[in-house]
Amino acid sequence: MAQFISHGYVQLQTDFSQQFHQAVLQKMNEVYASEGNLGNNLVPRIPEIQQFFEHPTVRGALTSILGPDYIMHAHRHGHFNRAGSKGIAWHKDNYWGNEKIRNHHPWSAMIFYYPQDVTEDMGPSSIMPGTHNHYKLSDDGSEYKLPITGKAGTMALIAYDIWHTAMPNTSAIDRYMLKFLFFRLEAPKHPSWNNRRKVWEPSSNKLPIMDHSLMWEHVWSWLSGSSALKRSTNEAARAHGESDGRSIQQLADCLSYESDEASSLDAAYALASLGQDAISALIGGLRHPSPTVVRTSAYGLAAAGAEALPALVEALDVPSENRDAPGYIAYALGEIGESASHAVPRLIELLQDDSAFVRMHAIEALGMIRQPAELLVPALGEALQDEDDYARFTAGLSLARLGAEAGDAVPALKRALDDPNRYVSAIASTALQRIRSDEALDVLLPFLQTARWCPKTTVKSMY
User: What kind and span of H or E run contains 181?
Assistant: First the structure.
């Protein structure tokens, strides 16, 4: 767990036989030759792949990171790196082109799977460990780069937001990698892994990555069921690299170091542990004209937890030079979670905002706060008709997070099954499955029967 928090990845190995992986590879070769890339229909067409995700090693790892009720996103992709390819640029996967705030808490993760032995000359996927919370790369390219190689069956469980690439394939062998995305549905109330530590300890296998000790400690505490980072002033100052400590004003000044993302993030997390005066400094950062400074301040306020709630709610009514500032505030309220329930009426008002950025983060926050359901559910049902695709998807995801308490949204979810966006339709079906009432199942089962995919029907065998 410490390695995933700090480095953004862990590598997994299952005990499936090499013959099993060879059979998957052979079927992929046949399918790609005759039908091309299957995209989201990868699992229905090659159903053996689903067995990987039912394996105790994989299920246990996903449960540890995302909690026991995690779900698989409808998007999955078979990456095909042909022999002789030149590779692709380093990148983070996006949110359908939307500039959604990237969560520091692990609300999502990806798995990369190799059905064949992959060596470095075959153009493997490569990651930059420790970069999952960095929006920018260094100018000198000094980040540590880790090619993911291994025997057939190798899986890498990675943070969704990590920088990664496909390396040039200088071999004579085509290389496959299958990618799958997963979501957490509920904030942790206790550790979902076999935790034997009472306090945060860094990974014993630390690679040469930037040190973000306060951030890592906060994420570990959140995963353990504690929503806020609480440390003494001296401890926070030492963790920030200042033996004699820095004033709150000095740390607040660091928030605006846009060219030094690492230092500004460290300052935000140091401020999060220093009480009300430091919270006021972070609130001041929300009024900065730079979206980068506003975002960094929001990260610090989310880490401050319930102590920051009064100031965050008040900030919703304070004019800002940044038009999207309410979206950053909504993000922080959502990450604080259920204790922010008194902010729900104000967040619901934001669903009428002109900015899709603001609306999508208000919708996300409602699903994370979860209560009171009698206010949340009607608002989220209406949000399923938002003009923005990702806002509608997030409304479906938020209703899935509410589960059985979202029963009144079944009619809205029924309409969403016919949404022109495939992912909105898919998450609506997941929400109905999670609600699981008779009414929900009466809507869901006919839809699934009509949408049934036959893995035996191919272009060569139509009937």
Answer: strand 175-183
d(CA 304, CA 270) in angstroms, rounded, equals 10
Q: Which of 63-67, 102-106, 194-198, 458-462 has the lowest mean pLDDT?
A: 458-462
β-pair partners for 118: 150
Q: Where are the domains of the chain?
A: 2-183, 213-371, 394-463
Answer for the pair 168, 86: CB distance below 8 angstroms, yes or no.
Answer: yes
- Report the candidate in 220, 81, 213, 206 with the shortest Cα–Cα distance to residue 144: 206
Contact yes or no for 149/117 (Cβ under 8 A):
no
Q: Indicate the CATH number for domain 213-371.
A: 1.25.10.10
Q: What is the CA radius of gyration of the chain?
A: 23
Please give the CATH topology (third level) of the domain spanning 2-183: Jelly Rolls (2.60.120)
Name which of 274, 205, 289 is nearest 238 in CA terms. 274
Q: Which of 1, 254, 291, 8 is nearest to 143 (CA)?
A: 8
Alpha-carbon distances, residue 337 vs 110, 144, 298, 366, 369 (angstroms): 23, 34, 14, 9, 4
Average pLDDT over residues 148-161: 95
Ramachandran bin of 127, using left for φ above 0, alpha for ψ from -120 to 50, beta for the remaining angles: beta
Q: For the segment 192-229, what is each residue's pLDDT rounded down to a tens digit? A: 999 888 889 988 888 999 999 999 999 999 999 886 65
- In this predicted structure, the answer to whether residue 245 has a pLDDT above a threshold of 90 is no
Residues 402-431: tens digit of each pLDDT: 999 999 999 999 999 999 999 999 999 999
